[in-house]
Amino acid sequence: MSFRTPEIPSVILDDIRGAQKMLSGVARVTAMEGSRHLSQLVGAPVHLKCENLQRTGSFKLRGAYVRIAGLRQEERAAGVVAASAGNHAQGVALASSLLGVRSTVFMPVGAPLPKVAATREYGADVRLQGQVVDETLAAAQEYARETGAVFIHPFDHPDIIAGQGTVGLEILEQCPEVRTILVSVGGGGLLAGIAVAVRALRPDVKLIGVQAEGAAAYPPSLAAGRPVSVERPSTMADGIKVGRPGDVPFKIIGDLVDEVRTVSEDALSSALLLCLERMKMVVEPAGASTVAALLSDPKSFEGPVVALLSGGNVDPLLMQRILRHGMAAAGRYLSLRLRLTDRPGALAGLLGLLSVADANVLDVSHVRTDPRLGLTEVEVELHLETKGPEHCEEVAATLRAAGYTVMG
């Protein structure tokens, strides 16, 4: 565990313990909460490590503070610069303010307004540049070259990894009986840091990374034995939407992590909805990825399990869309097309039947002019709110029993 290569810097347990001392009084020791619902699904105790309740709303403060605190005096005087769509931006901004260092943060033009406002409130000079994060990153690196400001990478630096690894120390202290730890993965800094801490102290614990299917660079990279880029990564989980693993975390993850799984967008939205409804936790899609993995294959994990909720910074407009998507994925919405006889009271009768079936009508589309319809027919498209998949079946069965032809 103490070996360091000259080509790619490594991280050891002593680095993480040093980071933990540095973060004392700065980063919160976040709560560990049990989940009865997930425990029943998995068949073993499941605990949630709530980094969504960390200062700035994610684990990112840990690594950013350790990195900036480790700068030489002349580097601090030059200021720091970062590029981020949200969590890293806020972590760098707050860490810099706490340490008295000037910070400039580049964010994409389309970054959510609450994240932009929070980053400014933490003290950073925010500059909106680039349509995608890669363009924003290039702008930040150019600024660093022009001004001498120190570029603070979000995951590809030993100090960042050491800071994030303090989460692993807390997990082992709070849940010493843990057998499996699930960690969301973007560039890999968080998982790498936790892996170093856990492998040094508890080599028997299984470590599993979780990525979104549309931005899963680690599985092909691990198969190839080197970091491989994903062309045009796409996922609602912007916190782990990273096209290429970092060189430093990739080496650690390849050596120390048991497995990296992927989860679908449906699983992510269902997990976010579950966190909100059952656990009363506001969690961003990236933070809910570990819960999505549990929902996708609950019987494949040895317990006790700790699932890390890595962040809770979600834009309200995105939350609204995700919740709708999650409710649809969970069978809470039902869309139906039916044909009725075009006569007075026909639609009222249909709606009355749905009321008896306890289905809430969200939207009704009434079509009379489709050439496929008979002379006395009308087609009705309904969007309903239901209580779940079983209720959907009951509603459809009620309609059929009343003589309606359910077309879709």
Overview of the molecule:
The protein is of the alpha/beta class and 408 residues long. The chain has helices spanning 13-23, 36-42, 60-69, 73-78, 87-99, 113-121, 133-147, 158-174, 189-201, 218-224, 247-256, 265-278, 289-296, 316-329, 346-356, 389-401, and strands at 32-34, 46-50, 80-83, 103-107, 125-128, 150-151, 180-184, 206-212, 259-263, 305-309, 333-341, 360-367, 377-385, 405-406. It has a six-stranded mixed β-sheet. β3, α5 and β4 (103-107) form a beta-alpha-beta unit. It is elongated, with a radius of gyration of 25 Å.
Q: Uncertain spans, ≥5 residues at pLDDT below 50?
A: 1-6
- Give the class from helix and strand content and strand pairing: alpha/beta
> How many runs of DSSP E, i.e. beta strands?
14
**Major sheet:** 6 strands, mixed
What strand line-up does the widest sheet have? 1-2-10-7-8-9
Overall pLDDT confidence = 89
Which terms summarize this structure?
single chain; alpha/beta; four-stranded parallel sheet; 44% helix; six-stranded mixed sheet; elongated; 408 residues; disordered N terminus
Quick structural gist:
The protein is built from 16 helices and 14 strands. With 408 residues, it is α/β, with parallel strands linked by helices.
Topology:
Blueprint: H1 13-23, E1 32-34, H2 36-42, E2 46-50, H3 60-69, H4 73-78, E3 80-83, H5 87-99, E4 103-107, H6 113-121, E5 125-128, H7 133-147, E6 150-151, H8 158-174, E7 180-184, H9 189-201, E8 206-212, H10 218-224, H11 247-256, E9 259-263, H12 265-278, H13 289-296, E10 305-309, H14 316-329, E11 333-341, H15 346-356, E12 360-367, E13 377-385, H16 389-401, E14 405-406
Parallel strand pairs: 2-10, 3-4, 3-6, 4-5, 7-8, 7-10, 8-9
Antiparallel strand pairs: 1-2, 11-13, 11-14, 12-13
Helix pairs in contact: 1-8, 3-5, 3-8, 5-6, 8-9, 9-11, 12-13, 12-14
